[in-house]
Amino acid sequence: MTRHTDPDQTFVNLVDTYLDRVYRYLRNLTRDADLARDFAHETFLKLRKQVAAGQMISEAYVFTTARNTALSHWRSDKREEDKRAAWGQSGSQMNLSHPASLVVERQELGQALETALGCLSEDQRTVFLLSEVEGLKYEKIAEVLDISAGTVASRKFNAVRALRGELERLGHALP
Length: 175
Fold this sequence. Notes:
Layout: H1 7-30, H2 33-52, H3 59-76, H4 80-88, H5 100-119, H6 122-133, H7 138-145, H8 149-169
Helix pairs in contact: 1-2, 1-3, 1-6, 2-3, 3-7, 5-8, 6-8, 7-8
C-alpha cells in the first residue's frame, strides 16, 4: 500500500523544521533582521511551490534556496555600495541577565565579530556561517554551495584565520 503525503502537511513540517535556522542564517548573512525576514518568507514561498510539485526537499536544498534568494536580491541591485552597506550592518542584541560589565564586554565582542565577519569575502562568510552557526557538515555545505568538501574546508580555514586577525586588530585577542 502506497502512502500519499499531504503537500500542505509536508510544507508545514518543512517550515517547522527549518524556519528558525533559515532566518538565523539569513540574519547573520545580511546583518538586517527585516531583510532576513523578507528573504526567509521568499525562500519558503519558493519551497512551497516545490513541495506542491511533489519534490522531496533536503536540508541542503533549503539552505541553497535561502542563499540563492539573498544573492539574487543583491545581484539585481546595480549599486555595489548598497550591497556592501547591507552586508556590513550590525544589530547585536544584549543579554541583560548578566552583570553589566559582562554585558558590555559581550556587546563589544559581538560588534567586533560582526565587523570581522563583514571583512570576509561572501564565500568565506557563507561557509563560516553554515558551519559554525547552522552546524552543517562540510559535505552538506559543499552540496549547498555546489563546491567540493575540500573547497569548503579551505574557505573555512581562511575565514577563521581572517576572523582571528581582524579580531586581534580590533583588540580582542583569541587563544
